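Memo to structure team: turn this sequence into structure tokens by end of day. - J.P.
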Amino acid sequence: MSVAWDDLRFVLTVAEQGTLSAAARALGVNHSTVLRRVSAFEERKGVQVFNRTGSGYELTPESRHLLMSLRAIEEQVNGLDRAMARQGIELDGPVRITTTDSFAHAGLIRHVAAFQQQNPGVVVELNVNNSYVNFTRMDADITVRPALRLTDDLAGEKICDLAMRVYATTAYLAENKSTGYGAHKWLGVGQPISSTMVGEWQKLNLPDENIVLKASTFVGLRDVAATGLGLALLPCCLGDPSPHLVRAEIFPEEMKTSVWVATHRDMSGSARVQSILTWFAEAVRKDADLYEGRG
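Reply from structure team:
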């Protein structure tokens, strides 16, 4: 009996994620669908692919050799998808854009709306996500994100820099004038943004006992800082426009990274994707003053 790639995709995702619920989130389906598809695959093939444990699903020793084969098949299928996508030129159908919450709130949503209005045949799928998006699996057409440099699988254009400064309310700064890190309450970053340069700065400079709160997004961090709870290192595109925050000049640290508009390297030759990249590169470049802290 032949095996459909869609069945193998469920098996591979469970093997990589380790639990049915995590696999369901990755596949965009519900828990019961993953359980049904995996169980049906095992029944049809007459083999037990997974051991069910208290912590999740593990490949049986006899099935571990399947993982490398499944990944090779996945890469072939994804490569075919990208090759087919390169044929598209007309701007219609879905356009998948991924970005961080900081860029979404700092003006990118306005550009996405303008793009759709200019291309009424397009249905924009906007994924606001601070975690890594897998372009190999065609989870997005383009990304607008901060990074010091692009990973090997991406190709794109650096638009400008993204500056970051320390912010707080005027009331907090009036009551707390010390220039020592340990004399202040700090608002820190948690997963998934703790792996950013802000997270590294936090580990090097801030005493653990002074971090009174951690947030998983910079937008959330900005909103907490606006209550006056403490200091936060934020992108200038979020801190400067806030009516409740000012730059904490007692901490003149300024960090910066790069703003990129990019796509998967295999898609960079697509006329359709290149036209989308060019449109958003020009749009984002208009906001360079805001991103670089001059807004």
